Amino acid sequence: MYITISGIYENGQIILQESAPTESRMKVLVIFLEESEFLPNQTTINALQAAERSEYEAVNLDELK
Fold first, then answer.
1. Residues 2, 53, 8, 63, Cα dihedral to 10°
2. 10-22 per-position pLDDT tens digit
3. Does residue 46 contact residue 39 with C-beta atoms inside 8 Å?
4. Does the structure show a pLDDT above 80 at 23?
5. HSE of 40 in the Cβ direction (CA atoms, 13 Å)?
6. Residue 55: CB atoms within 10 Å
7. Which are the contacts of 22, defined by CB distance < 8 A and separation ≥ 6?
8. Residue 7: enclosing H or E segment and its boundaries?
9. Residue 64 in contact with residue 43, Cβ under 8 Å?
10. For residue 25, which phi and psi values (nearest 5 degrees)?
């Protein structure tokens, strides 16, 4: 399952901007974005989904911009 929830990191805590999709224990990936960052493109989304499935592959870094 791949779900994205936006949030803010402040004073050592991550504050989610919506409720978590589960009450049970679940692995998460945390990505810190600069304020001016744009939404990830499809290549970035595909890479994150592959990482979640532990299917790592080489990605051209220019494609992630």
1. -100
2. 899 988 888 888 8
3. no
4. yes
5. 15
6. 9
7. none
8. strand 7-10
9. yes
10. -65, 135
